[in-house]
Amino acid sequence: MNNKLLNKHILIFLCLVLVACKTEKDSGDNDLFLALALASAASSSSLEQYTPNQANWDNFSSKPFENTTNRSHDPDGVGWLTAASWENAKWDGTVYDPTKYTRAQFTNIICPSGDQIRGIREVFYANRPFADNRNPTKAEVDEWHRIALNHIRALVGYSSEDRKVKKDHCMFKRALWGQERRFTTMWDSKYPGTNGSAYGPCAGSGNAHCGATFIPDLEDQAAYLPSGHPGCSTQAGAEGVTGAPKTDIPWSIKWSRAFCQYLGSEGFWGGHVGPFFHREKFGFSFYDNGNNATLRAKWTGELMDNRYPAP
């Protein structure tokens, strides 16, 4: 069943439930709930998917719920993060200047824990990016990552429209092609090269960025791209690869561990951290490696100025 049809069925179900339970006393609450449900489902059904269908997310859907720790993919559904920890991670709107703090201090401000970014819980519930917190779609997760990236930019005062990051089809596709090149042999016979290089193949290579420059030909790209989208090619940008995210971490915070680890180890001016704040366009690919959900992040477009010169 496609997403639009599924959302339609969800809306019909919600409406039937609300009509059945609606009374004069609680009609206001029910109307508000219905409005929120309608808005969330309508928004989700209109989202464009950037992560290709070929990306295998089966374990990302099942593993978070293999035990009773997690209830859903939203922040409150993450079993090991307490209400007190989220209270400690609230944001009061303060703009943080990284030049005023040590690396450790700034990391602790932006990431009160390795899985929590300051203010991210409130951002999630203000936007309600998942129509079903138990089963978010790829399009919804893609959009959530855009919202979340723009939030960390706002934490340092990058909140104007020209500072906001955008999703890019070729970055999402190239991130997946890089993962497929590194972790499988599916492209090797048709596309030979120097093993372990940025182009690949990658069998047995310890180079985390192996596959970074790999792009299949236009014929092979077609199955990954939206109909009518021009082919992808190499362009100026950056790449980060990390195994910090885990397969069993819910989607609302899965990416946070990658960002917070980079920030803690490199600081605001680190090579892997910079694009999170200063590149115009992005694409994420999470690849299931058992316990790890390896993130390959691709960045391109304008490289915006860093308003905080390194001390």
Essential attributes:
10% strand, globular, 4-stranded mixed beta sheet, single chain, 311 residues, alpha+beta
What does this structure look like?
A four-stranded mixed beta sheet has the order 1-3-4-2, with helices on both faces. Helix 5 runs antiparallel to helix 11. It is α+β, with helices and mostly antiparallel strands and 311 residues long. It has twelve helices and four strands.
User: Overall 3D geometry?
Assistant: globular
Q: H/E element string?
A: HHHHHHHEHHEHHHEE
Mean pLDDT: 90
Structural class: alpha+beta
Number of strands: 4
Radius of gyration: 21 Å
Stretches where pLDDT is under 50 for at least 5 consecutive residues are 1-38
The amount of beta strand, in percent, is: 5-15%
* Main sheet overview: 4 strands, mixed
Give a quick rundown of the structure.
Helices cover 39% and strands 10% of the residues.
